[in-house]
């Protein structure tokens, strides 16, 4: 019973509660129904009725309004949280490619360094737009760090990457049209913006997406790096006016000192710049007053934040800081070997792109040897007076290491700073090589051919070939040497034989041979004729020097190279020199050419036997000159090419305009060649063990020495000596070296073997004789009417058996040459004779009896005359008592 009672009570309680809820619900429903019934029935009137200010006010300040507001606020907060989370998630997904842990790797030196092969710094390329030098925290002065924090982000050491108050302040500023977002970005955010969003930030507009990304990355960076690391990265990345990024580049540029050495006023000035680097650039005089004002603000902020004292701030403000700013230098102000370095940069830009080469912080080890470069520059400067003396206004030099093809020196113009043409690199410009192209024409001729083959001793007559050439072709001296060998033709740089060589070997093949050897640009893209065989096309000097280096490499071609190694900002090697040689000429061919070009006798008829430049004291070289004209017979360019087994050098002297030279002289070229070759070999290569005196090319297997057409010389293994009939004996005059006539004196007669050959171009049959004799013309030095010299001999006893013998001589048509005095047919005296007169000799006889005394005089035409007298020499006593003077003379 009790249980039922309790259960009844409980049921009664729940029933009452339900009744109450229902009563309240009914009351609310009734109230709402009454309220709705009181509203106008028409929808528009009902809306206006409900929006009445009194009713709206009453609702929102009622309990129900408060509850509604709380609900709406909660929903808004939830929605906002979801929105922000979604926004961050969306942009975080976009940041997957940005690795904040690699921030330090992105803050890298952008200055590209160029070094020579021995690590001499040639140039720091700071790019065209901006550059930075990255340094470590310990290399930055504390004043610099404090000044930056004071002016840029005083709460830097307190926040975690973002400033909420700053963001709100910036938002309000933008909402009111202030547009100043400076307070929004912490130093960390500025770093993120500079490193990751520089291009977007350059648009200078409020970008919500970028701001969200900055905030996300700033928070992550603060977790990964400590404050000093972040500050150091910021100082290395910040802009400091003009093209300078990073505090190190700014300190060096403006004050000529490293960032670790800047003073308080200097640090304050640098810290003032990044807010507006264009306006506050110290070289922008219009912004100097504002810059000083901001520098003072930096000092005040440092004082207020406890970094410096008031006294330090006041003293720093008194320093005339702008007076200490260094003058602004051009980008290439301190560059060494400018033409070479800029050529290296140009080539690397083609390979890696301009951005990486100029802003990638590369370290480039070039092939240049700055020691040789300095010697080349010094010699050009010293000898430029010889260039101006002949009307030239420019010179260019290139030197290439033969074994590797690496450029060791390059002087692109006489003066790089010459405003008119100095920056133009003549060493890589297109120039006419003139006769210096001839070795490659002969190289092609020396190759194996069907039918006739050629060697250094092959006759290739220097004669008029205007008909075959198509216009007038002459040598520089206007004459011809006749039937000469290729050795003599190349050594003396005769034009007709070179053109013949091009015809016989094929002009196209000759051009191809030059190109394969290294003259890549020679005659490319132009119509050429036979004049190309003597240098009428254009070529780059550096290519031409390398083509000669191919001869020195005994036929191995290597592309000319400028770079040994390139490392990126992370120290990784991204380019390295490698041997890319290939055989283009048989070593027998290059050996013959080197033998000819080093032969003093081969060039003696034009250049003499001791010409400067051809003969470098202590260094054996092979040398070739070249000249071109302006088409009117006036010299325009002058070349000299020189090589050894170790170094190939070329120099060009001419003008930077089409004008002709006033005269032609090789003195300047010869002196420069001598200076470079002597210095390089004796002062560098010899000391480094890369060369020793006497080094020369080893004669290749197959080279044969033959006597052909009466001349003994070297020939390649594929040359077959032509079979001929018995040599014909011809009498020559040794004075004129032509065939003798009836007027040729007996003493001038000699018999030599001659042969006939057919010229490969003119097809004319020519008779040849050895040693420069002309078998096609007769003696023109002697005439039958020539007067002969005369001589009278006498003897006077001096004492005992001693006599003074006198020959009195007089010249005929030719000047006298010598007089011989003989006793009993034995010459006892031979004297040079300068002119008419008496020439004596004292002689003591060893026996007595009759003695025959004679004198013979010879002139330069090899005419002679003799006179004889006899003396009886007594056995003892006074010779005047016993000597019988026999006046029995025979004269002829």
> How much helix, percentage-wise, in residues?
25-40%
Global Rg: 50 Å
Mean pLDDT: 86
How many E strands?
A: 31
Query: What characteristic shape results from the CA principal axes?
Result: elongated
Strand order of the largest sheet: 2-1-5-11-12
Structural category: alpha+beta
What distance separates the N and C termini? 192 Å
| Low-pLDDT stretches | 178-183, 877-892
The main pleated sheet reads as: 5 strands, mixed
What is the strand content?
15-25%
Outline the fold blueprint:
Blueprint: H1 2-38, H2 43-50, H3 53-60, H4 63-94, H5 103-106, E1 112-115, E2 121-125, E3 131-132, H6 142-152, H7 164-175, H8 187-196, H9 198-201, H10 208-224, H11 227-237, E4 244-245, H12 247-255, H13 264-272, H14 288-304, H15 310-318, H16 338-352, H17 354-359, E5 363-366, H18 370-389, E6 394-401, E7 406-411, E8 430-431, H19 438-445, H20 466-469, H21 486-491, H22 495-505, H23 507-517, E9 539-540, H24 541-552, E10 556-557, E11 563-567, E12 573-576, E13 582-583, H25 587-597, H26 604-607, E14 622-629, E15 635-643, E16 647-654, H27 667-685, E17 704-708, E18 711-715, E19 728-733, E20 738-739, E21 749-758, E22 765-768, E23 774-778, E24 790-799, E25 802-810, E26 816-823, E27 826-832, E28 837-844, E29 849-859, E30 864-873, H28 879-882, E31 890-891
Parallel strand pairs: 1-5, 3-4, 20-23
Antiparallel strand pairs: 1-2, 5-11, 6-7, 6-16, 8-9, 10-13, 11-12, 14-15, 15-16, 17-18, 19-20, 19-21, 21-22, 24-25, 25-28, 26-27, 26-29, 29-30, 30-31
Helix pairs in contact: 4-10, 6-13, 6-14, 8-10, 8-11, 13-14, 14-15, 18-27, 19-22, 19-23, 22-23, 23-24
